[in-house]
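re: ur question from yesterday

yeah so i grabbed the chain u mentioned. its 610 aa long if i counted rite. heres the sequnce exactly as i have it in my notes:
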Amino acid sequence: MPKTEEWLNKMQGWGWNMRVLSLTVGGSVSVMAIAFLGVITPRSLSVDAIAPPPLSDNPTVRPDLLSRPHPNSPSTPYHPHGSTSTSLAPVEVVAPLGTSRPMPQPFLVPQQVGTWSTVSTHESPVSAASLRANRTRTEGQGTDSSVPDPDVPADAPPRTPSLTQAPHVPLPLVLQDVVVLALENNRTIKNAYLDRIIEQADLAIAEDRFNPNLTSRIELGTGRNDQGLSTVTGVEAELGAEMDVRLPTGTEFSVSWQTDGWVEDRIGLNPGGNHRVGQTVAITVIHPLWRNAGQAINRAPIHLAHLQDDQARFRLKSTLITTITTAIQGYYRLVLAQQQLKIQQAGLGRAEADLTRMDALIAAGREPAIQRVEAEASVANRRVDVLAATDALRSAQLELIQALDVDPTFAPEATEMAGLVASEIQFADDDTLVKYAVANNPDYQADLLDLDIAAIQLLQSENDRRWDLNLVLTYLNALDSQAAERSDVQAGIRLGRELGDRSLKQRVIQQRTRIQQLENTHIENLENLEINIRNALREVAFQQAQVEQAQRATQLAQQQLENTQEQLRGGRKTFSEVIQAQDDLVDAQDRELQAQIDYQNALINLDQQL
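ran it thru and got these structure tokens back, copy pasting raw so excuse formatting
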């Protein structure tokens, strides 16, 4: 049995190692850079082919992959993710975040929409599907829940689940791991790429408007007719083709060709035969003089299809940016929960050390026994705080698992945070950033196309109200073995219109009104975008100041606690004042951590707006 258990433990350990090989890219990330990689016109979809590169032991982030173009010069980048980044300074008494795992230098190569190929010098990546498969195999090696544990009595009460002893598999993640997994597994993105396949087919149909349409026809038939003492049998064959062509000017050509033959034999009375071969060529030309005349109205459906396709691409880009932003914010919530748990554990450690010190003083007769109640209450309160922080950490893990759509038995661990020194960030001026957002914000660009689409639809509505005034030319040539050749040429003017349809005028009024509404909306969207950019910049500056003040407050709280403990040893402070100083330090550490996370979220919000 010991050898069997040792072998099972080794197998489970190997399974865990395989699970954590599912991710690859590390370091800081720019929301817009990854979104731009995803927006490519779909040709063939293979969403499941999106797989991140494997983890490695060499962390190097490609700045050319993570940074994105900016209107300023490279020496003064407006966004920090492409510039100097340092680890977030941890609070003084809390263990810092784990050192970032070394990463290779992979890069994503856009091929077809819905797929990314990963180029790396390491082995093939392991996708989320492989993680789930490995988990299934590992679970198959585990203990059967139906077999009772011999070490537990049969009548023992059920065990209470523990928050700190949940059987979760650690899943170390850096920021780029989260982004890649979100792009790989998000079903909204998969559906958006599937929609692009339909939209591309619609665009291809619109672009086929001026290509000729050819229809061919072949007919073979035989017949028998009995009339008294005579019997007539015959065989007929017919071959024909028709071609329709529409020119950008609105002119329509229709050409048809048909040849047929008939072989007839009569037996009985008046025997004999009848053979006939004929050919007919017809050409029709219809040239519009009013309605549907001109290239503007005839090319309108193609222009409309292109605008709608561009709009769909902007919507897809916006979906990508939103998904990436949500994943990054979830990662920062995980960082916040992890650090808060460390802060509470450090506070619990100090409270337990004070309780031990108090027991020693009571045993030496230097403190009354009643003082132990206050120290013990402080320890109990800290344990409650640790329990709450542990629950908050698991909640943050589950939220990130839901956003990434990975196996819920994993326990994500944030191993790196793209912390930045506030003084090292340089921003362009507000007007430059507003111009950049106007040129790149996908939501604004998609709304801007509504005006162009409405203008084309107004042109089509006004065209529908016109009279049909067409010049019609026809040519017919018929050849027959039993008759003389016949040619017919005709030319004429055809005028017509549907009367009594009031909806034609109504559509024109609707389109003109809608254009006015869209112009008002465009002005409002431009103002809102400008306000959002300036507000995001203000929020970044505010959070930057918050971080600086919160760091200073933590340092002072730490110093105050040390002074209070020193005065307690001299008899000038009470134990209650020490507990209060410890609470103040924990609160200051929480505020500093929250300020750092809020600062990161402010940067991400600015990135999303741009």
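noticed a couple things. The chain is about 50% helix and 20% strand. also Residues 1-5, 10-166 have pLDDT under 50 and may be disordered.
anyway ttyl
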